[in-house]
């Protein structure tokens, strides 16, 4: 279930104005959009800006009722009956890394869940690869990739204590690249170093193409929804989302920008 609550609410209005921008986030928290909202709130103080976290159902209801102007949402969660405008701006992907010296090239989703949910460290012998115990690496909570892993695991499952959690996917890759017995997860890195290999999942290798077009099974596109004919503050915000500065924010948030 998505977390509900207010992330921040900004009302930087120098004078009363009919213009308003109300953004509702139906994801686990989109740092790229929230940072852009914060930036614009400071730059144009004549327009009140609010940013809230809501469940998918409540967010869509707010948009349909005219209580929200924009809804941040993962594409699979968009109701089929939605008739408004959708702007796909990013794709997020959960990927798994092994040491480049490891001959393993692919695993099934269920096998990866078993590996990372095991209380004890699995042994590579069970997969016909190496004769050593696996060293498992992952991402700390609230960091890019952690929510994707939570969604990937069996509902209600918790990561075991023996998992070595790091602050970023760069650290995970560094540890796996230095440890032949290592396996780790994180967000997709298009420029992963030669010391690691990205595993194919369910027969599909994570590449710029497969992640970008959503054919990689653990890639999820993200969109922002609005009514068919939005007001000026919404149009301005969508224009800002098409600029290079916003694409940099998307990359910083661990996602790939999607070109319009």
Structural class: alpha/beta
What portion of residues belong to β-strands? 25-35%
Largest sheet: number of strands, sense, barrel closure: 11 strands, mixed
Alpha plus pi helix count:
8
Mean pLDDT, all residues: 89
Write down the overall geometry: elongated
Q: Radius of gyration in whole Å, from Cα? A: 20 Å
Low-confidence stretches: 1-18
Q: Tally of extended strands?
A: 13
CA-CA gap between termini: 30 Å
SSE string: EEHEHEEEHEHEHEEEHEHHE
Helix content: 25-40%
Compose a concise summary of this entry.
With about 260 residues, the protein is an alpha/beta fold.
Spell out the key features of this protein.
alpha/beta, two-stranded parallel ribbon, disordered N terminus
Structure in words:
This protein is 27% helix and 26% strand. The chain has eight helices and 13 strands. The chain is elongated. The two termini are 30 Å apart. Mean pLDDT is 89; it is low at 1-18.
How are the SSEs placed, and which strands pair?
Blueprint lengths: L4 E6 L10 E5 L5 H13 L5 E5 L2 H9 L5 E5 L10 E15 L6 E2 L1 H9 L17 E5 L6 H7 L11 E3 L2 H9 L4 E6 L8 E3 L1 E2 L6 H5 L6 E8 L5 H10 L2 H9 L3 E2 L3
Parallel strand pairs: 2-3, 2-4, 6-11, 7-8, 7-9
Antiparallel strand pairs: 1-3, 4-12, 5-9, 5-10, 5-12, 5-13
């Amino acid at each position: 279930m998505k977390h509900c609550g207010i992330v921040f609410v900004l009302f930087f209005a120098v004078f009363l104005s009919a213009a308003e921008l109300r953004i509702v986030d139906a994801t686990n928290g989109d740092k790229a959009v929230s940072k852009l909202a914060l930036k614009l709130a400071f730059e144009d103080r004549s327009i009140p800006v609010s940013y809230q976290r809501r469940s998918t159902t409540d967010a869509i209801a707010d948009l349909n009722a005219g209580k929200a102007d924009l809804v941040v949402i993962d594409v699979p969660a968009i109701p089929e009956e939605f008739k408004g405008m959708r702007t796909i701006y990013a794709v997020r992907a959960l990927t798994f890394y092994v040491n480049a010296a490891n001959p393993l090239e692919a695993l099934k989703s269920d096998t990866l869940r078993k590996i990372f949910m095991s209380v004890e460290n699995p042994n590579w012998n069970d997969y016909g690869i190496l004769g050593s115990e696996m060293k498992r690496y992952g991402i700390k909570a609230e960091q890019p990739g952690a929510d994707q892993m939570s969604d990937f695991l069996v509902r209600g499952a918790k990561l075991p204590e023996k998992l070595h959690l790091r602050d970023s996917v760069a650290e995970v890759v560094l540890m796996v690249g230095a440890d032949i017995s290592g396996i780790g997860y994180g967000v997709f890195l298009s420029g992963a170093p030669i010391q690691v290999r990205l595993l194919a999942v369910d027969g599909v290798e994570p590449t710029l193409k497969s992640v970008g077009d959503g054919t990689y099974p653990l890639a999820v596109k993200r969109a922002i929804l609005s009514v068919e004919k939005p007001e000026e503050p919404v149009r301005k915000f969508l224009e800002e989302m098409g600029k290079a500065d916003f694409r940099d924010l998307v990359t910083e948030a661990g996602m790939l920008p999607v070109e319009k």
